[in-house]
Design goal:
Order of helices and strands: HHEHHHEHEHHEHH
Strand order of the largest sheet: 2-1-3-4
InterPro entries: HI_0220.2, Uracil-DNA_glycosylase-like, Uracil-DNA_glycosylase-like_sf
Radius of gyration: 16 Å
Protein name: Uracil-DNA glycosylase family protein
Oligomer: single chain
Largest sheet: 4 strands, parallel
Strand content: 5-15%
Distance between the termini: 18 Å
Shape: globular
Structural class: alpha/beta
Number of helices: 10
Organism: Methylocystis rosea
Number of strands: 4
Length: 213
Amino acid sequence: MRRVSGRKLDEITARIRACRVCAETPEGVKLPHEPRPVLRVSSTARLLLASQAPGNLVNLTGVPFYDPSGDRLCDWMGVDRETFYDVSRIAIVPMGFCFPGYDAAGGDLPPRPECRPRWHDGLFAALPQIETIVAIGRYAQDYHFARLGHALPRSASVAEIVARWREFQSATPLIFPLPHPSWRNIGWLKRNPWFEADVLPALRAEVARLIKT
């Protein structure tokens, strides 16, 4: 497979990490804290975790999924933390690079609107070696399915998209749609036992294939 030079990837990654658009020239409300873009990429990782946006704990540490959601995601994937953070094998790219802050109900706001049009197309052009995308949540699913020519119906729920996971196994790159591993989704997981019974074994097998050294 064609590979883009590591230098090009390093350049765009450095620009993303230095970005201050949402604080200095935002679209709408200014970011309520200092920007801290979080992502992990390399020219060798074949597995991409495409997520929504960092949470507050991630903003404080600079480490993606450094929270209970990350523990659950590791379990879903069948990997330990050391493997999860091996950037040579697993890339992590959220739809919004900075923690967006909280809404009035105390939940995380959606990903910042500045990130996707400014950075994502160029970043993924510099990651042609990605073979499988684990698309976590609707924001990541909308973007990656559309980018790969499989736009999703606006009316489809995350549950409906995840339930169709077998349909996406022939895509290139292959796409695994997942719900967010947040504690807020415990009820959804209990109501949908097929996710643990059918989706997770296939996901773990694919992860194991991609991270083999």
